[in-house]
Amino acid sequence: MNKTAFREFAATMEDIAHDIVRACRRGARTIATMPWPAMLACCIVLAFVISILPLALFLFVLFMGLKVVIGAFAVDRHRAQREQFGDHYGKQ
């Protein structure tokens, strides 16, 4: 990586860091001016997003993986049955 490319990369990373800091400061100011009931609702929504949503996504991926594995075994069993009976069915 030459110096010009590194400088561009460093400048991009610095811009990203400034944007993140600016967003955090804006979020902190917004939370500081919120009334208590709105802050409670915000905390409940954040708790949902942080805990329940990843759990649901993980379970979805887990069950889809199980479905693929079980489907592979079923296809293998059907293929073995076709080979056992001499391919009389399944081909047109």
Give the CA-CA distance, first to last residue. Answer: 59 Å
For the largest beta-sheet, the strand count, sense and barrel status come to: none
Mean pLDDT across all amino acids: 87
Summing up helix and strand content along with how strands pair, one would put the structural category as mainly alpha
Contiguous helical run count: 2
Q: Please state the overall shape, judged from the principal axes of the Cα atoms.
A: flat
Number of strands: 0
Q: What proportion of the residues form beta strands (DSSP E)?
A: under 5%
Oligomer: single chain
Order of helices and strands: HH
Share in helix: over 70%
As residue ranges, the low-confidence spans are none
Radius of gyration: 27 Å
Structure, described:
There is one protein chain. With 92 residues, the protein is mainly α. The protein is built from two helices and no strands. It has helices spanning 3-32, 36-84. The longest helix has 49 residues, at 36-84. It is flat and about 75 Å long. 0% of the residues are buried. The mean pLDDT is 87.
Summarize this structure as a short list of keywords or feature phrases.
92 residues, mainly alpha, 2 helices, flat
